[in-house]
């Protein structure tokens, strides 16, 4: 029953998107091409994040979020917001702006993971480059479509957290990757929804 309830809760915001005011864009071939290319790009980034999560699990035995929730509270690592991508008043420019801003935030916070996994610098740097490129793609598409770019106040745009111990650094890296993966899942669903309109 819990699984069904959770499934219903996760699905509910997407049902609200069917009234999305994007009829004028949905038939645009360039827009559709952009969506399909960036769906693939997002899927690739998700795969790279999953690979790094696997490394963190194997290297530090940090694999389950529920075991680390108390430490997480001390670290103050937050999830980049994406509520505009599944709100009842869904608007493409607001959703795209949040995806763009979130990608920029994760690009910066991946520096924590880079310090943690110097042996996997190539993969982390590729991930940073891909996040920057996807963010640029979205910015460019917004400009091409004449969509207003919206800048949301960021909750924590300051420097990366200073970790009080190596263990906290490891847990911080774990949660940055876990949050980034959730962020990408939501962004992917939003892009996929737009592609189906």
UniProtKB/TrEMBL annotation:
Q: Which domain of life is it from?
A: Eukaryota
Q: Does the keyword Secreted apply?
A: yes
Q: Which InterPro entries match?
A: 4_helix_cytokine-like_core, GCSF/MGF, IL-6/GCSF/MGF, IL6/GCSF/MGF_CS
Q: Where does the chain cross the membrane? A: none
Which compartments is it annotated to reside in?
Answer: Secreted
Q: Which UniProt keywords apply?
A: Disulfide bond, Glycoprotein, Growth factor, Secreted, Signal
In the record, what terms sit under GO molecular function?
cytokine activity; granulocyte colony-stimulating factor receptor binding; growth factor activity
Q: Which residues form a coiled coil?
A: none
One GO location term (cellular component): extracellular region
Pfam families, alphabetized: GCSF
Does the keyword field hold Transport? no
Question: Which residues belong to the signal peptide in this entry?
Answer: 1-19
Query: Which GO biological process entries does UniProt record here?
Result: immune response; positive regulation of myeloid cell differentiation
- Stated family: Belongs to the IL-6 superfamily.
Q: By what name is this protein known? A: MGF factor
Record organism: Herpetotheres cachinnans
């Amino acid at each position: 029953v819990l699984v069904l309830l959770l499934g219903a809760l996760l699905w509910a915001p997407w049902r609200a998107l069917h009234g999305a005011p994007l009829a004028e864009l949905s038939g645009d071939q360039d827009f559709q091409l952009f969506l399909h290319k960036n769906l693939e790009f997002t899927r690739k980034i998700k795969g790279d994040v999953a690979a790094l999560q696997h490394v963190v699990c194997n290297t530090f035995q940090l694999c389950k979020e529920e075991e680390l929730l108390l430490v997480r509270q001390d670290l103050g690592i937050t999830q980049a917001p994406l509520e505009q991508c599944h709100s009842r008043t869904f608007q493409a420019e607001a959703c795209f702006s949040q995806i763009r801003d979130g990608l920029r935030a994760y690009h910066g916070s991946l520096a924590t993971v880079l310090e943690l996994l110097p042996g996997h610098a190539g993969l982390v740097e590729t991930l940073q480059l891909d996040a920057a490129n996807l963010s640029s793609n979205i910015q460019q598409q917004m400009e091409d479509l004449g969509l207003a770019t919206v800048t949301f106040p960021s909750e924590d745009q300051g420097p990366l957290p200073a970790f009080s111990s190596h263990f906290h650094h490891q847990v911080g890296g774990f949660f940055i990757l876990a949050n980034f993966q959730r962020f990408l899942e939501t962004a992917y669903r939003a892009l996929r929804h737009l592609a189906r309109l």
